[in-house]
Amino acid sequence: MPDLRELYQEVILDHHKKPRNFRKLEDANKKADGFNPLCGDKITLFLKVENGVVRDVGFVGSGCAISTASASMMTECLKGKTEAEIEEIFERFHNLVTGKTPPETDSAALGKLAVFAGVRDYPVRVKCATLCWHTLRAALENVQETVATE
Amino acid sequence: MMVRQNTATEVAKPSAFFFDVEKVRGDFPILAQKVHGKPLVYLDNAATTQKPTSVLNSLMRFYLTECSNIHRGVHQLSEAATQEYEKAREAVRRYVNAGSCAEIIFVRSATEGINLVAQTFGRTRVNAGDEILISAMEHHSNIVPWQMLCQEKGATLRIVPINEAGELIFEAFEKLLGPRTRLVAVAHVSNSLGTVNPVDRIIEAAHKRNIPVLLDGAQAIQHLPVDVSDLDCDFYAFSGHKIYGPTGVGVLYGKSELLEAMPPYQGGGDMIASVTFEKTIYNKLPYKFEAGTPHIAGVIGLGAAIDYVSRLGLEKIAAYEHELLSYATEAIVRMPGIRVIGTAANKASVLSFTLEGVHPHDIGTILDQEGIAIRTGHHCAQPVMEFFGVPATARASLAFYNTRDEIDALIAGIRKVKEVFS
To answer: Poorest-confidence range of A36-45, A72-81, B302-311, B389-398?
Structure first.
């Protein structure tokens, strides 16, 4: 039986209560909306990208602890990253939360984001953790429609 | 091969003042299992109900001894299956007190029943500029079929508002009934709020203006006595799986004079009297609306479910569930941070709530670890969520096999949620 504390780690609860970069970005040049119809999680992500590098990021929306913390922690790791680097992090993060690879494979490379390893024991919650990442990819690709996880 | 049946409840008739819930639970083997090492507390009955052994056995019996197609075979099995199928139709007719079996159409679900009416009655009766009236508390299944019809026809969907308690505002409803209103379609009981609508008054007011009424009974049929003749509703749709029957089968009741005038919904076998390439003559009611091989086992299982519920007695069920809902509501409102969504004076079975600072989805996951199954989300009623300004709610929905101990487990589970998020 998975331990609830593995899912709801202190770091996650902290980011849920006090999400970082929780703001609209006035000078954003990329933006996308994400929606998880299963639980009603909504996110709007703002990016300022210069020469293929993320300079600033912000998000607004409402969601469960997992999706809010995931978005908050994602925004913290984006600044200064190139699109190619971001794509690699997303792939590792996706492997981590879906259990595609053992947690130790990607944990070191993911740093703080490794706290989401517990999500793998809760398959229905994977979409909560990945909504912001799918939205990020849509923003980088300039997708206009709302990204839905279903 | 048969699932063992606890026959004790078959003979034991609980007195009017005593509902023997422990005995009843014995009829539902699934309830005895453990989830994450804890006894299962199943409080997601508005999504689907569990099935008693008598229903499971009826499915087994069909597939083990009668499996065949209905209405055409000359052989023994087909005859037996046809009899069982039509016996179930009679059980449904009696249960809802319809005038005739011709008015009982087997469909896939309440959703399909509503779509049938929209696509046949609706497409022939609704024209550009006409109006269809629904309420603000409808399930998506009683919104989208009408939206699709209105879009096709250039008609308008009008919405009866609800108040802060989650009750339909009757005066507003009366005002919205107009010369262009072609149909009123409302939930008998709301799936997200538990509100029991004043359907008798709704029907009376609509009929005064010669407007037919469809009731979505998906959340009522298992909790309240439903008498379509007494209500005088024109259509009544419900799903089998919400009244302890199998999934994939539902019922549409319609007044025969309306059904006669409606074109068929789907074409195929069984719905025809004769076919040539030049002309097809449709079958009589109810077969005109039952194209193709139906869910025979499902219908037979639904018949067994209705027999089961009838034996327990719907009045006793309603009284027990009402008492349990009061117990649960009183316990939950005492908890700090809890907001009950849906506080209508007349409610059935549903307890929707939010907990300050915790998203319903997190509540659901933590309760699941305690073996407690509830539903979290928008409950296919996004406009209701918008009205109450919440993205989602947690919903505990009760059945007659739930107990006070299970409500206590729910309350303890919510305390655990608060601990995790403290």
So the answer is: A36-45
Q: Do B366 and A64 touch (CB under 8 A)?
A: no
Task: Return the DSSP state at B122.
Answer: I
Of B135 and A124, the structure prediction assigns the larger pLDDT to B135
Q: Are B150 and B185 in contact (CB under 8 A)?
A: no
* pLDDT tops 70 at residue B3: no
Give B321-324's long-range contacts (Cβ < 8 A, gap of 24+).
Answer: B321/B223, B321/B348, B321/B349, B321/B398, B321/B399, B321/B400, B322/B348, B324/B398, B324/B402, B324/B403, B324/B404, B324/B407
From B101, B150, B233, B380, active-site residue: B380
Note if B380 is an active site residue: yes
| CATH number at B57-310 | 3.40.640.10
- Kindly state whether B420 is in contact with chain A, defined as any CB-CB distance less than 8 angstroms: yes
Mean pLDDT, range A135-144, rounded to an integer: 89
Chain A residues closer than 8 Å to B359 by CB = 39, 41, 62-65, 68
Any idea where the domains of chain B sit in the sequence? 8-50+313-420, 57-310
B8-50+313-420 and B57-310 have identical folds: no
* pLDDT confidence of residue A4: 86
Write out the CATH class of domain A4-143: alpha beta
> What is this model's ipTM?
0.89
Cβ within 8 Å, pair B377-A41: no
Structure tokens given for A41: 């999680």
Q: Candidates 3.40.50.300, 3.90.1150.10, 3.40.50.2000, 3.40.190.10; correct CATH number of B8-50+313-420?
A: 3.90.1150.10
Is any Cβ of chain A less than 8 angstroms from the Cβ of B47?
no
The model's pLDDT over B309-360, given as tens digits with 9 standing for 90+, comes to 999 999 999 999 999 999 999 999 999 999 999 999 999 999 999 999 999 9
Give the domain ranges of chain A.
Answer: 4-143
CA-CA distance, B199 to B189, in Å (whole number)? 9
